[in-house]
User: What shape does this take?
Amino acid sequence: MCALQAETAYGMVLQQFAKSIMAQAIDCVLACYSNRAACRLQLGELLPCATDCSHALNIMARARCVSEFPKSEPQLQRCRLRLLTRRAAAYASSGVLHRAQHDLGRALRDVEGATAGPAALSDRQMITADLHRVDDAAERARAVRQARVPPSHPLTPPYTPLHPPSGCCSS
Assistant: This one.
């Protein structure tokens, strides 16, 4: 009977290790994608930055379903917010304004659904201001396309990148 109990105990421990390793690996991969995206944004590698953010967001969406993710819900929200705003900055700076608007809208909805506090208020104000700037740039671009004349206000760069909220999956 002792051998059976030991086998059962070891089996349970192995399962816990597997869950822990998977969760830590996912957390590490998210941090790597997020940090690489930050570097790419600073270097002006805008579409690769957006791709890294997309990969990280996709992993976050799947990882929550298949493993015990080690981050708390507020930490996950901050990480998602950082990735969305970073991707929006990359899209806006590369002129893909409709995608920037979409990401900033998602980020704003996430912040509005978060618990109230000074960080949430600051995030909401920054994201709202960035969304207005992107909306203005998109409106100018529409007006230029419709008028078929050179813009009086250059659209390059159409947007000053947002400084994503701190304390997430980036160092």
Summary: The CA atoms of residues 30 and 71 lie 11 Å apart. DSSP finds five helices and no strands in the chain. The first helix runs from residue 2 to 43.
